[in-house]
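Message: I would value a second opinion on how I read folds in token form. Give me a protein, with the fold worked out from its sequence. Write it directly below this note and I will take it from there.
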Amino acid sequence: MFNENIENNFNIEIEESKSENVKTIKIMNYYLHSKYKPLLEAEKIANSSYKKNHLHILFGFGLGYIANAMLEKISDTDRLLIVEPSLKLFKIVGQNSENNELFKDKRVEMFLGTDTSLLEYKLNLYFQEYMGRFTIIQSPNYQKIYPDFFRDVLKISKEKLMMEVINNNTRQMFSLQWQENYISNLYTAFTAYNIEEIKGRLTCPIVIASGGPSLTKQLPLLKKLKNKALIICAGSTVNSLLKEEIYPNLVVTVDGGIANYKHFEKIKIDNIPLVYPLIVHKDIPSNHKGKHVVFNISDVTVMNKLTNDLLSTELGIVQTGHSVANFCFNIALQITSGPICLIGQDLAYTNKQTHALGNQGFTIVDETKEKQRNMFYEEGYYGEDVLTDFIFLGMKSGFEYQMSKLIEKGNSRAIFNCTEGGLRIKGFKQIPFSEFCESYCKIEYSDEIVSLLPNKENSVNWDEFYQRLSDLKNEYNDVVKLASGSLEVLEEVENNNYLFDQESISKLDEFDLELRRILENEFIFYILRPVLFKLQHSHLEIENENEDEMNERIYNKSLILYKGIKEASVQGIEWITILLEKVEKHII
């Protein structure tokens, strides 16, 4: 972060330009605009930098010439994020009347200062909206005045781009699987416990065991902690624990892919409560005959309301993250007031290993894998450099975000990273696992742990559940009919050289009006969300588009929309039909 004391000593000089009747500005002998023609310079930078349908990050505001030139270029599908590191400079020049229209424009946002955490949060929101479509525009000489902060901006932008690429790939790969999981898991969730029911019920310490390479050395101590701490197992780590005859108190799993199911396929853990969101792979809950605990996740608030309505209860919300361990940490924070520690949370390829011994995913990293996964070195637990990648950095930021929120609230809970290896996680106190055990795990908590999930009577109303699902299926059928009608109209448009005549427009308007009404049903909207996401980023308007190009683009976007809606709805009907058959068996 830039030293504020140095900024206070900035010598800011505003001068008349040599060839244009406007001013230029100089800081620390660096001109932020041309001495001669700052307006012409700004126009050239804007012309060479503008990219349609992009987020434009302008590093340096100066007197606002480049920002105003960009405002002349950007369309309604673009955004301009101005990063101005100097608060002192902005106080002097930012309120000039020439910039009034700029700051009123909804396409423009100003970021002031050098708070990298806040900037990271802001970029994360924009990168989700633009799916990684961004460009960085450098105002002259700003990177010389703020070299460290400029490197931070580049680094954060690259990391956020990589995270969004990973997220988008996951989104595309698993979108249908997640939807099928969700509908199928409604069945087990209907009779399960939920996080809201068990919130704040414990005072005992909690150990969260993850499957990083450093877990191996902690297993002997972990084995001695039975009933002296509640052990939460993060996902596939259960394989490593069971091989050492360590039986955790809760197993948390969140991944919706088939690879996650493979971790659980051949093990029997019916005696260990299973904790999961409804997007987890459907075969994991359906094959688990023990106690279940379900929860909503924080980044799908619309869907959470619908889930609560369908299940007639408040499930409670768990903070999402890039790894199952991020979920585990938030669950631990919610259910105990006692101390919490992480073990096996390397977030790195410690000793060139991917996982702890005994984990099904265990492999050794060679040079080929290093290059394939774009690995790099970051600060480690002991201050050394350790090998990691962008996926691990995403998990690390999840822990640090939760800790930052606790610190903001003035929370002084005893929370430790006892991994003794891997990456350093900011905000966590670091002590050896042996010290944690000696300090906090001295007495037995067996009665408290057992009372977390007491046996309960099954008093659920299957009839009402069946009726709600039947109503949902009927609305899906209506969507299929409307989408089919729209596709017939589009076929006529294609045969007419993509020309939308008044008759076709009227028919589509009629179908759209009814579709919008049905899509007010949040469940259907959620199931169709991948279609709408694809539509948002497909067949974008091109510069200087003529009428024929516009008609063909609108046709292609409409085709994606209605085909996607129909296919997703037909698939949804199949899944709900299977669920209804299961529920029907409980109706007398």
The chain has a mean pLDDT of 85. The chain has 24 helices and 19 strands. The first helix runs from residue 4 to 8. The CA atoms of residues 399 and 418 lie 14 Å apart.
